[in-house]
Design goal:
Elements (H helix, E strand, L loop, with lengths): L1 E7 L3 E8 L4 E9 L7 E5 L6 E4 L5 H13 L12 E8 L10 E2 L2 H9 L8 H14 L5 E5 L9 H4 L5 H7 L8 H15 L7 E7 L3 E7 L2 E5 L22 H9 L3 H10 L2 H6 L5 H9 L3 H25 L4 E5 H6 L1 H8 L11 H6 L7 E2 L8 E4 L4 H14 L21
Parallel strand pairs: 1-6, 6-8, 9-12, 12-14
Antiparallel strand pairs: 1-2, 2-3, 3-4, 4-5, 7-8, 9-10, 10-11, 13-14
Helix pairs in contact: 1-3, 6-15, 10-11, 11-13
């Protein structure tokens, strides 16, 4: 059984084809510059050179059609027949309060996702477009929605409600939802294995740091708080998003610069964060390199990001009590050793004893690494995330009728004998 995982962004479609019987990825890749022009696909098959093809994709249906054609290509593909695809798993960023787990997509589910797309206007519309496009191209296979927000639906009211007029929540759903749920789920389960404990015995802080950044406080195996809020704009410093700021700033700058609501929203989401501080960069590798050469704004950017990471660690330790582990994941979390070091050095009084040599050697996206000393009361791990594996296992379990909530469903990666291929 081959399961296709799709992650549709506003101008890209990531994909992965997983052979469930052999438990291995047979192909993965991405179509970039969808809608905006000069589109192309980058297609990877284990043991082969990466294949690129330029092909205009004016919408997501063209992009998914290009993916299917590439998978079926006699030279570069891995399928002989489209009917080898048994199911499709779709990442859906925002499920509102309606979804606490992955579900089979039917008309009612799609309507419910459309009802909350105003809560994630940058993400849900392309997710919906991808689902409808894939259903049109693969009408005879089951399609499953995997929600970023589902993992965080265990948060208590005092964590997810804002101190705003309560009828905003009742009328419009204004509350904290959280995102990157599949990533936080995966790495927290892996951390429990490395700790030699069951997930429900663990208190863990997970730190997903990429272009988008979110942190999660996990108590007894479930999410009790997370840094992103109603939208992915709240929380930590990100590549182009500002994260936490004084809420009066947008109104102040709208008056000063005569900006519309749409314009200020675009600035906060697309021109702030690391890009806003440095004026040039979103990639932390560029920031680290230029900081080492004396660029003042790059140094400040690193200081701000690391300082805010430290504050989240401290606040989440206060929220969940005795801490077992901290996990860094995603592109920067897995590869950004200088940022990890700045975030956790000098925390011995909190039981975190960083091993700088281990941290500097943990510069791979393929290995799970302990970066604290062996006697550190709180362990800190670098764990490569694998959201697509969560997608795949959810889809397979739903098809088999064995799927349930993540605390009662046994994922392959939550077992001690799991080996990541």
């Amino acid at each position: 059984m081959d399961i296709l995982a799709l992650n549709c962004g506003s101008s890209s479609v990531k994909y992965q084809l997983f052979d469930w019987d052999r438990k291995e990825v047979v192909a993965k890749g991405m179509v970039e510059r969808v809608i905006i022009g000069d589109s192309f696909i980058m297609h990877e098959v284990p043991g082969k050179e990466t294949y690129r093809e330029d092909s205009e994709c004016p919408d997501h249906q063209f992009a998914i059609d290009l993916i299917i054609k590439t998978l079926l290509d006699p030279v570069h593909g891995v399928l002989k027949d489209i009917n080898q695809i048994s199911a499709v798993g779709h990442r859906v960023v925002h499920g509102g309060e309606k979804f606490t787990r992955s579900v089979m997509i039917d008309e009612n589910v799609l309507d419910a996702v459309k009802e909350v797309q105003h809560l994630a206007p940058l993400h849900n519309p392309p997710n919906i477009a991808g689902i409808e496009a894939a259903q049109a191209l693969l009408p005879n296979v089951p399609h499953v929605a995997i929600f970023d927000t589902a993992f965080h639906q265990t948060m208590p009211e005092h964590a997810y409600l804002y101190p705003l007029p309560y009828d905003w929540y009742e009328k419009y759903g204004v509350r904290r939802y959280g995102f990157h749920g599949t990533s936080h789920l995966y790495v927290s389960k892996r951390a429990a294995v490395l700790l030699g404990k069951q997930p429900r015995e663990c208190n863990i802080i997970t730190m997903h740091i990429g272009n988008g950044v979110s942190h999660c406080a996990i108590k007894n195996g479930v999410s009790v708080d997370t840094s992103m809020g109603l939208t992915p704009l709240e929380g930590a410093v990100m590549g182009t998003r500002c994260g936490d700021i004084d809420p009066a700033i947008p109104a102040f700058m709208m008056q000063k610069e005569n900006l519309s609501a749409k314009e200020i929203d675009s600035i906060l989401n697309k021109k702030s964060g690391v890009l806003g501080i440095t004026g040039r960069f979103t990639d932390r590798r560029d920031v680290i390199e230029n900081a080492s050469k004396g660029d003042r704004l790059c140094k400040i950017s690193l200081d701000i990001e690391a300082y805010r990471l430290r504050k989240y660690i401290g606040s989440y330790m206060a929220a969940i009590g005795k801490l077992d582990a901290i996990v860094f994941t995603a592109g920067v979390g897995e590869m950004g050793a200088p940022i990890r070091e700045r975030a956790i050095e000098g925390m011995e009084h909190l039981g975190i004893h960083l091993d700088k040599d281990r941290n500097r050697s943990a510069m791979t996206r393929k290995r799970e690494t302990l970066i604290t000393s062996d006697d550190s009361p709180v362990k800190v791990y670098v764990i490569p995330t694998d959201e697509e594996l969560v997608f795949t296992e959810d889809v397979a379990a739903i098809l088999a009728g064995s799927y349930t909530d993540h605390m009662n469903f046994e994922y392959s990666f939550s077992r001690s004998d799991f080996v990541r291929k």
